[in-house]
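Case study 2.
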Amino acid sequence: LKLVTHCRGYRAAQVDLLEEYAAYRIFNLLSDISFRVRLLHITYTDTDGGLKESTFDRYGFLIEQASGLAERVDGQLTQVPGVSLGSLDVDQIATVFIFQYLIGNTDWSLVMNDEDDTCCHNGDLVDVGSDRYYVPYDFDLSGLVDARYARPDPSLRIRKVTQRRYRGFCLPGQALENALSRIMARRADIMGTISELPDLSRKEAGVMTKYIDKFFDSASNADKLLASFERRCL
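Prediction:
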């Protein structure tokens, strides 16, 4: 299993980890074909004696293996150099598009990364029957996390990662409208995911809640938000 841990000793790094864990849990609410995660409380022991503290506790979380996810949904992983939009399950991909906007994540793509030989960037492809699903991961550069090291891609022309930018492709019919309705119906559960995070101060939890609330405030005018997606879709 993949273990995600803190990257620095300061408080903000631990908060960043909990916020990324929350992003996974939010997508779990929106799709069964998503990476399950489990929060851990880990005790580290410095066996070399080079640290100020010989023993210390931090949070971490485990991410379900891609092969485990595929087996759980009776599917199989697929690796291809490219993927056509028409080959993807429209309900899943519409949900992914809006979910990434909800958490303010622009660090993903349906095309192959320059350093890879298969599609896609920060997402795995899983075939279930005749349907193909894009399953996202790696949310540390999202606006919801807003890590100290996070910087947006300069080509997007946004100043900071907390600035939302819709990066979905143009979809036919009511796919986006249906996805938005499903996400709106889970608002209380999404907020509950944040409130259940351990060891966050009221201020830290409040920052997350306010960021998510801004999405739902704009989504309350669904026609206007969907129209903005249609203007920006790729």
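The chain is about 40% helix and 15% strand.
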